[in-house]
Specification:
alpha+beta, seven-stranded mixed sheet, six-stranded mixed sheet, PmbA/TldD fold, about 475 residues, 2 domains
Amino acid sequence: MEDPFAAQGSLGLEQTIQGMLARQPIDYVELRLEVNEATVIELAGTARRRVDHQIDIGGNVRAVSGGYAGFVHFDSWERLEAHVAEAVALAQMAAAESFAPRDAWAPSQVIQLRARVPYEEDPRRVSTEDKVALLQEYGEFGLAADPAIKGVQTRYFDRYRHLWFFNSLGSLVEQEKMDLGGSVLLIARRGGAVAQRGVSFGSSNDFGAVRGLDGAIRDAARRAVALLDAPQIAGGEYTVVIDPHLAGVFAHEAFGHLSEADGQVDDAGVLAAMQLGRRFGPSNLHIYDTGHDAGSRGYLPVDDEGVEARDVDLIKGGELVGRLHSRRTAGTLHEAPTGNARALHYRFAPIVRMRNTVIAPGDTPFEGLFQGIRRGIYAAGSTGGQTNGELFAFRAAEAYLIEDGRITQPLRNAVLTGNVFATLSHITAIGSDFTRYEGGGGCGKAGQMPLPVSHHAPSLRIERCLVGGVK
């Protein structure tokens, strides 16, 4: 696919745009241009339900006057100067008419950067028909794995983005982004009992993540069938061991969103609860956010405000030490931007979002996490959940009874609930089994869904965790 920069001459157009932005009679202007290409495939068994390939070109302008922003997006690269003028007028109007205190935007460093995707295997070099054929093989394999497997649902996507970012300070960032992911969901049925398990995959640079899934599909089929005969979990308070996948989901959903500073700036109660220096867990608990893990779906060298990514410690030594920022939230709280301003698409303005949320490994071997547990729960994976401020509820994909330090029988429909601050304080062991999990889902916030993110973690042991059963 040929982009308009290639057609018009990259250097000349870049210089023209930078000159146009520098002339604007306003505090700050940024212009973002995008060329996006996406493939989506969905199968039921081996039957095609959806095979789409889409291309779109557009961009946006954000202008700031006295701390107030005007935002305009557009679906072609024509009339750029008119779009800039419109955003400038909106910002000036907002500044003139607003009675609220203005936002103090943190300063931004001028950067000149061009970043390409460090591909292992470029999915654009694999034909759509070859992708469909591979997914159909997985459908056939899943259906043949066990007589109780009655359905297989497969989905795949890849999204390539070529972006240019300019601002009136003189920054120019050209970068490519690739995001791919999906899942193979196996549905087991016997009589009136239904259970499902799946295999999820994701990457920011390697179609190889989609290959070689036969063993994982076979294992998922076995576990789905085993759940058909599992008894309903008895609700109550347990010592719980959660696997790296569920630990990562917990770090992202229950704690990570609270660490996004726009929620703190706009809610005095959350800001007070997230006071830096507050103790949130054991002294060996370390949670951080990074955009530097190449290959992870949360990989982000430069954010959508032209701020270079840096690692952000959130909890270190068991204490809250940091939060995630855009330029606006950083300026309001007199802190530094962190490279966490992200936009799903050019039709959205950037907001504070996580990238790759990580719980650092501890020193407890996996087997040691179960020692001394007379009766507890081992919970693995997640099929969904919700948060409401500091409260959370997550449904484990699998649960097993722990008896006298050993995993015994499977259980159905375990839901873990609680208060995130209390739960963090009840962590009594952090596993050494650190796992990089790359799934095919995404993060949702303010209508921007699914944004590519990752979570990497070890297993955790948590005391006094409330576990309920659902039918």
